[in-house]
Amino acid sequence: MQQLARGDQKINTVKTRRKINISLGSFLSYLVLFGWSLSTIYAMFWIVNNSFKVSRDVMNNSFKIAFDPVMVNYTNAFDRVNIGKGYLNSLIMSGGTVLLVLLFGGLAAYVLSRFNFRGRRVLFSILYASLLIPAFATVVPVYELLIKTKLVNTYFGLMFPHTAGNLTFAILVLAGYMATIPKELEEAAFIDGCNRFSLFVKILLPISRPAFASAAIFVFLWSYNDLFSALIFVNKEAVRPIVLLLSEISSQYGTDFGLMATAVSLTVVPVLLVYLFISKYIEKGLTEGAVKG
């Protein structure tokens, strides 16, 4: 009896130690994440706070909270810099890129994930290998192609290169997710009279919403923040995206720190809105299909 009691006591001691270790590890993890999030949130707060100050106050008291905010920077951003046009251009080009990537990437992923055909593995190998090609290596041929097709300084002049550059990523993410969908759903749909296109639109597309949302936000971010391509392909004032406009503000109004803080704040707002709307799908869309493919 005493040996059994001692054994139970040792087991309880081990369980208690494990609980303490798990609790301590979770506490440290949450502490690190809290510190990282606090530093990120504070940087964003600092930018937005300084956007409500004049340039003199930003220089003298950049860390002071703007209890008496001024809107002159936002007025100048829309009147002098015409940041509203930059917003429209960015949304048109980035939104168009997302639609094209999801359309063609979804169809290609459907074929690669649901059909077994000769050369399928070779196609996957080519897709993975294409991710290693830097975008800088394709600038010259892409620019020559845009000149021949007269697409330079047009919306399509930036949408098509962005679509081609992000298509591989979208195909791999969507194909990995679609490969996890049971085959029985297809068989049941065929019995009910669905054709291939109806199966994709009515069954696979709704089920794959997390993967589509994950691909959409990454494609939108990469397209929205791509300053390098915008400098080369769409440097005309009528089609300049907001990132190119932000670069111009930093060169022409570099001493107006309040205006620069306002421009940065306005540039980040669409990204935050897009993330807030579809953030719940991101983790699920990237983790599903990580093993099967």
From TrEMBL:
**Gene3D superfamilies to which the protein is assigned, alphabetical:** MetI-like
**Which family is this sequence assigned to?**
Belongs to the binding-protein-dependent transport system permease family.
Gene Ontology CC annotation, any one: plasma membrane
**Under what name is this protein listed?**
Carbohydrate ABC transporter permease
Q: Where are the transmembrane segments?
A: 27-48, 87-110, 122-143, 155-178, 199-224, 257-278
Entry-linked InterPro entries: MetI-like (IPR000515), MetI-like_sf (IPR035906)
Q: Does the keyword Cell membrane apply?
A: yes
Main site of residence?
Answer: membrane
GO biological process terms held by the UniProt record:
transmembrane transport
Membrane topology qualifier: Multi-pass membrane protein
Domain ABC transmembrane type-1 as annotated: residue spans: 87-278
Q: Per UniProt, which keywords does this protein have?
A: Cell membrane, Membrane, Transmembrane, Transmembrane helix, Transport
- A Pfam match is BPD_transp_1
